């Protein structure tokens, strides 16, 4: 058995990226709603706690390891207690690399117990020795990724760490995230960007990069119907989203998306990519505004999923709040596919259309 193991698998962002490359993974996930979503989408899943799962049962079975630990302890959208816990996380990384599992001893001293989940990919990597590894987290975790990469290099891996902007890879969202890539069989490097803020002209060396994809373009290409009154409401206008939907009315064309409700909340016009979509318990704070700044309605689950590059018919499960949470926490599948194409061995992807 040669499996790709997805730690903290969520609703399936990495899994959808793998599917685009012609591969499947086996996901571990603790959240019940995310497990239901994964199962409904056809992604193999065990609903379990990654931190307590025995790695010995997986020895010799894992060729690829993926991991996006919960970001809340380090996220700008949370209280960021993980930053206070960073030194303890560094200590556990060092200890694991030297054959000592000090997680239980360190955990009581954490301000957020979830902070220590960021060390789990190294524990699995050292125990299972997969051929390749791909990890993702919020930018604040980059120093811990750098430390992890250094320890993986000592174990025989080539590594790369850095920040990637999802908009540079065809995602209609300027979502910046830290990544760690590693391989025991080949050099590693970040994926070459396919898009740029401004379209680039073709040259003698090849075509230029396309411009960033706007929310209007992404939502205009979606299938199905969207209502201008949003979900759980009556009235409003419905339009088919497989047409240039936002051109139907001049008023809709001038809408902006606001993420947050403070005066300094990020706002983006429809002809720009979305900012990073953060939800958690603040779904009401992500709203469409008209040209006068008046709130028209909240962003819908369907719109959020499209802006995260999930299929329009993806089978989201759980409450509306849980669905938004899953979308906001997931790796955009289009970005996942671009990243994974750099580490999945070429012999596995030969003949597979991306």
The CATH topology of the largest domain turns out to be Rossmann fold
The count of DSSP E runs of length 2 or more, i.e. the number of strands, is 15
| Count of the separate structural domains | 2
Biggest sheet architecture? 7 strands, mixed
What value does the Rg take, in angstroms?
A: 21 Å
Strand order of the largest sheet: 3-2-1-4-5-7-6
Number of helices: 12
CATH level-4 homologous superfamily of the largest domain: Vaccinia Virus protein VP39
**What is the percentage of strand-forming residues?**
15-25%
CATH architecture of the largest domain: 3-Layer(aba) Sandwich
Q: Kindly provide the name of the CATH class of the largest domain.
A: Alpha Beta
Mean pLDDT: 86
Distance between the termini: 24 Å
Compact summary:
This protein has helices at 13-20, 32-40, 81-97, 103-106, 120-128, 142-154, 215-220, 250-253, 301-307, 320-329, 333-340, 346-349, and strands at 3-7, 26-29, 44-47, 62-67, 132-137, 158-165, 176-183, 195-196, 210-211, 225-227, 238-240, 256-259, 266-269, 286-289, 295-298. It folds into 2 domains: 3-196 and 331-349, Rossmann fold (3-Layer(aba) Sandwich); 215-328, no CATH class.
């Amino acid at each position: 058995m040669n499996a790709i193991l997805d730690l903290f698998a969520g609703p399936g962002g990495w899994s959808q990226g793998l599917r685009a490359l012609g591969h499947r993974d086996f996901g571990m996930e603790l959240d019940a709603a995310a497990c239901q979503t994964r199962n409904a989408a056809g992604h193999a899943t065990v609903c379990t706690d990654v931190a307590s799962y025995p790695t010995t049962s997986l020895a010799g079975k894992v060729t690829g390891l993926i991991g996006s630990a919960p970001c809340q302890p380090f996220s700008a959208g949370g209280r960021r207690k993980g930053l206070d816990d960073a030194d303890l996380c560094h200590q556990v990384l060092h200890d694991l690399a030297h054959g000592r599992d000090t997680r239980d001893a360190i955990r009581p001293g954490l301000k957020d117990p979830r902070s220590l989940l960021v060390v789990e990919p190294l524990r699995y990597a050292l125990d299972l020795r997969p051929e390749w590894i791909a990890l993702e987290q919020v930018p604040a975790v980059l120093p811990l990724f750098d430390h992890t990469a250094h320890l993986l290099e000592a174990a025989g891996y080539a590594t790369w760490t850095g920040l990637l902007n999802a908009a540079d890879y065809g995602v209609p969202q300027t979502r910046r995230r830290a990544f760690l890539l590693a391989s025991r069989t080949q050099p590693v490097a970040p994926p070459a960007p396919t898009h740029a803020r401004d379209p680039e002209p073709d040259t003698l060396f090849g075509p230029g990069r396309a411009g960033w994809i706007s929310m209007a373009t992404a939502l205009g290409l979606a299938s199905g119907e969207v209502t201008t009154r949003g979900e759980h409401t009556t009235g409003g206008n419905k339009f088919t989203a497989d047409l240039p939907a936002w051109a139907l009315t001049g008023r809709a064309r001038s809408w902006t998306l606001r993420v947050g409700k403070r005066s300094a909340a990020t706002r983006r016009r429809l002809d720009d990519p979305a900012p990073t979509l953060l939800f958690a318990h603040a779904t009401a704070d992500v709203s469409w505004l008209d040209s006068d700044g008046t709130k028209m309605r909240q962003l819908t689950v369907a719109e959020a999923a499209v802006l995260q590059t999930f299929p329009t018919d993806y089978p989201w499960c759980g409450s509306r709040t849980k669905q938004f949470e899953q979308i906001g926490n997931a790796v955009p599948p289009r970005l996942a596919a671009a990243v994974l194409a750099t580490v999945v061995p070429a012999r596995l992807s030969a003949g597979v259309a991306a």
